[in-house]
């Protein structure tokens, strides 16, 4: 009896939640999210150059174990990677950005923070006045880096 109730709750959650995730992410430039991504814990981080005036961004992102090396992003281009949070709850990625004589390092994904703002697709926009992180559950952009 409990197993049937649990399965019913999961199915209802997927029917209600998954289409909303797909729609909101497509509107915000993310790739289409699949049910498998949600169920297996996959996270996708996308960092987009949203600068004005054609400013090119040199972006070098990494974690303790993975180095994505430097990417040169023209306006509108992005760098994206997928992963699963580690078992210890300490997943952390950071980036170093060089753009228009500005050099800054910042956390681009910290599981302690991101689990409350994105469940699969974690979008970031680099703008002239700072870095913006998309809060999926509130459907808004938050400025985190000035």
Automatic annotation (TrEMBL):
- Listed InterPro entries: Self-incomp_S1 (IPR010264)
Q: Give the signal peptide range.
A: 1-20
* BP terms from Gene Ontology: rejection of self pollen
The alphabetized UniProt keywords are: Secreted, Self-incompatibility, Signal
What are the transmembrane regions? none
Query: Is Hydrolase tagged as a keyword?
Result: no
Q: Name one Pfam family in it.
A: Self-incomp_S1
Q: Where in the cell is it found?
A: Secreted
Q: Which residues form a coiled coil?
A: none
- Extract one GO cellular component term from the record: extracellular region
Give the PANTHER family listed for this entry: PLANT SELF-INCOMPATIBILITY PROTEIN S1 FAMILY-RELATED (PTHR31232:SF156), PTHR31232
Describe the family membership recorded for this protein in Swiss-Prot or TrEMBL.
Belongs to the plant self-incompatibility (S1) protein family.
Q: What is this protein called?
A: S-protein homolog
């Amino acid at each position: 009896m409990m197993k049937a109730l649990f399965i019913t709750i999961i199915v209802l959650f997927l029917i209600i939640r998954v289409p909303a995730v797909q729609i909101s992410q497509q509107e915000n430039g993310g790739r289409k999210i699949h049910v498998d991504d949600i169920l297996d814990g996959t996270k996708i981080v996308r960092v987009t150059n949203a600068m004005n005036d054609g400013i090119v961004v040199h972006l070098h992102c990494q974690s303790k174990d993975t180095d994505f090396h430097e990417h040169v992003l023209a306006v509108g281009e992005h760098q994206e990677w997928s992963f699963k949070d580690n078992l210890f709850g300490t997943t952390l990625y950071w980036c170093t950005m060089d753009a228009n004589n500005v050099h800054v390092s910042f956390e681009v994904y910290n599981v302690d923070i991101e689990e409350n703002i994105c469940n699969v697709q974690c979008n970031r926009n680099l703008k002239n006045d700072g870095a913006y992180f998309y809060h999926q559950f509130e459907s808004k952009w938050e400025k985190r880096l000035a």
